[in-house]
């Protein structure tokens, strides 16, 4: 995903001279392509995420669309107030990019696990969360974010994720994207890198992905949920404050509310050191 | 096509402007029963020099692309800015009467929704990183406007300010001015008793900034330092402005309690009499 991200960003930046990338001293062997092509729009802010984010907001207020880039919690929780006040409140075009969504950095431990990031980001009223499920959704999300500049969060896995789409899908906030056809009205809906787990657990059921969502996109959900008898959500994030919770809140008080069954990571994974696939299994996302 | 107004520094009598800022600030906090009058009086002279002389801004074009950008990082002192914006024509003076009222544009921390205000603050340690981003944008595009950030002293406890201080020096942002309102009083006690900043001058020099100290109530000295070009090529500018919290009202000066208290109508009259009297004698 991160390779699809940097390739796509570099391509987009050729056409749009206001795209800038600021990294928090991370991105070795990823960001060089962008840095080499656009040295005047690439900044390494150093190990200083609060300044990185405030700086990004300042540049965004002068016409740049700034992408801040770091691992997991560093560009999110470390600078949560800068995202809340400087970026989201001012509705500035800053896209916070985190690599290592979920437990992608398994053995690096809890400091590097992003399992509460949706909870943080979806509490921001103007924030669009982009959580692509494969490299093609990554490209689709990035194009949408650049065409619709505003406060946004792009959550990537690492590298080498499989492709689940044949071509770049159409994406829009709140709009479910079909991934696998299947029989019946019992469906799976994933966000982010949990798409692989959804496909593995499908057993012939239809699989959908929701790579773009936001507070504002809740309004579209009751209608989409109501078309199905059961919607099982999947995410590599804790249940509390996550994607399943978001969807449940979105349909609360409607007849569709009883249809939703969230599958998320158990908080057990927060105390464990293991590879991503092991943590996803122990956490209950995969079988 | 509509002609863009020429952007130039104001030509106000800064002493008279400072007096009117103080008077409006006192009226606003009294009416709204709001806090932070001491913090606003502390910066009234700096703000008067900025809006009256030093900043290239125009009320006719508050978003003019070549304007200087001013950011109040100590957002709690916003009444001084709202007053300056009203006195220099950015907003209607009658708007000040709504300060802090339900539904008012003028909330009790500076708001970017007010014409002429660039950035909402209220949480400390946000103005300098944001201003650094603006200064960086100007540098990258070869534009000649400046960014001026006004911080408190207590907010230098925030690590984000020191991150920005490293960044601005590393990138040679000599189009960035940071003013510290060094009144030496924080929320509970003095800066020295809370989290010592001294030696401040040499700290910033060591960080790679051009540093100057000034009496933050001396209009001539402030004007000289805040007008014009970089002090040292390739270095961001740090102006340590020695100020008195509550300046201009004898019973508020250097008193922690006036970080919070709002004046009674009697105390407002006494304060206004002092300020108006002081100007008459100047």
Automatic annotation (TrEMBL), chain A:
Coiled coil segments of this chain: none
Domain Transketolase-like pyrimidine-binding: 1-163
Pfam families xrefs: Transket_pyr
CDD domains noted in UniProt: TPP_PYR_DXS_TK_like
Protein name in UniProt: Transketolase family protein
Organism: Sphingobium olei
TrEMBL record, chain B:
Xref: Pfam families: Transketolase_N (PF00456)
Ranges of residues in domain Transketolase N-terminal: 16-259
CDD domains in the cross-refs: TPP_TK
Highest taxon listed in the record's lineage: Bacteria
Matching InterPro entries: THDP-binding, Transketolase_N
Gene3D superfamilies registered for this protein in UniProt: 3.40.50.970
Protein name from the UniProt record: Transketolase
Species of the source: Sphingobium olei
């Amino acid at each position: 995903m991160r390779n699809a991200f940097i390739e796509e960003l570099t391509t987009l930046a050729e056409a749009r001279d206001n795209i800038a990338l600021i990294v928090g001293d991370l991105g070795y062997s990823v960001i060089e392509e962008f840095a080499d092509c656009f040295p005047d729009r690439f900044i390494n802010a150093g190990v200083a995420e609060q300044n990185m984010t405030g700086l990004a907001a300042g540049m965004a207020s002068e016409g740049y669309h700034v992408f801040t880039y770091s691992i997991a919690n560093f560009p999110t929780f470390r600078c949560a107030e800068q995202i809340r006040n400087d970026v989201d409140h001012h509705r500035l075009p800053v896209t916070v990019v985190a690599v290592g969504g979920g437990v992608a950095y398994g053995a690096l431990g809890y400091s590097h696990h992003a399992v509460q990031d949706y909870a943080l980001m979806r509490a921001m009223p103007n924030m669009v969360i982009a959580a692509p499920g494969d490299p093609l959704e990554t490209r689709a999300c990035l194009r949408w974010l650049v065409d619709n500049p505003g406060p946004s969060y792009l959550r990537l896995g690492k590298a080498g994720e499989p492709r689940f789409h044949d071509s770049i899908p159409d994406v829009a906030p709140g709009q479910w994207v079909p991934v696998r056809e299947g029989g019946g009205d019992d469906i799976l809906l994933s966000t982010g890198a949990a798409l692989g787990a959804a496909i593995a657990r499908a057993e012939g059921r239809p699989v959908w992905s929701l790579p773009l969502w936001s507070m504002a996109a809740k309004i579209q959900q009751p209608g989409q949920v109501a078309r199905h008898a059961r919607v099982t959500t999947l995410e590599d994030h804790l249940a509390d404050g996550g994607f399943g919770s978001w969807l449940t809140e979105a349909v609360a008080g409607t007849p569709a509310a009883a249809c939703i069954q969230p599958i998320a990571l158990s908080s057990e994974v927060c105390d464990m050191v293991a590879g991503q696939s092991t943590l996803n299994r122990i956490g209950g996302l995969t079988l | 096509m509509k002609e863009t107004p020429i952007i130039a520094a104001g030509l106000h009598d800064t002493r008279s402007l400072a007096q009117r800022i103080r008077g409006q600030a006192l009226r606003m906090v009294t009416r709204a029963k709001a806090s932070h009058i001491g913090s606003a009086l502390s910066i009234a002279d700096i703000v008067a020099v900025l809006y009256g002389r030093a900043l290239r801004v125009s009320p006719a074009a508050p978003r003019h692309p070549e304007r200087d950008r001013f950011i109040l990082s100590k957002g709690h002192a916003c009444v001084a800015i709202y007053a300056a914006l009203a006195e220099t024509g950015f907003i209607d003076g009658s708007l000040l009467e709504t300060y802090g009222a339900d539904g008012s544009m003028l909330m009790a921390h500076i708001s970017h929704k007010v014409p002429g205000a660039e950035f909402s603050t209220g949480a400390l340690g946000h103005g300098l990183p944001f201003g650094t981003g603006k200064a960086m944008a100007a540098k990258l595009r070869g534009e000649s406007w400046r960014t001026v950030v006004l911080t408190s002293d207590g907010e230098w406890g925030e690590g984000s300010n020191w991150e920005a201080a490293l960044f601005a020096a590393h990138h040679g942002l000599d189009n960035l001015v940071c003013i510290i309102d060094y009144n030496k009083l924080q929320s509970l006690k003095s800066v020295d008793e809370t989290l010592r900043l001294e030696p401040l001058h040499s700290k910033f020099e060591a960080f790679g900034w051009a540093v100057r100290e000034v009496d933050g109530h001396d209009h001539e000295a402030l004007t000289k330092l805040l007008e014009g070009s970089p002090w040292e090529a390739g270095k961001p500018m740090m102006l340590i402005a020695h100020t008195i919290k509550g300046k201009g009202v004898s019973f508020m000066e250097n008193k922690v309690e006036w970080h919070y208290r709002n004046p009674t109508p009697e105390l407002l009259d006494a304060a206004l009499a002092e300020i108006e009297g002081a100007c008459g004698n100047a």
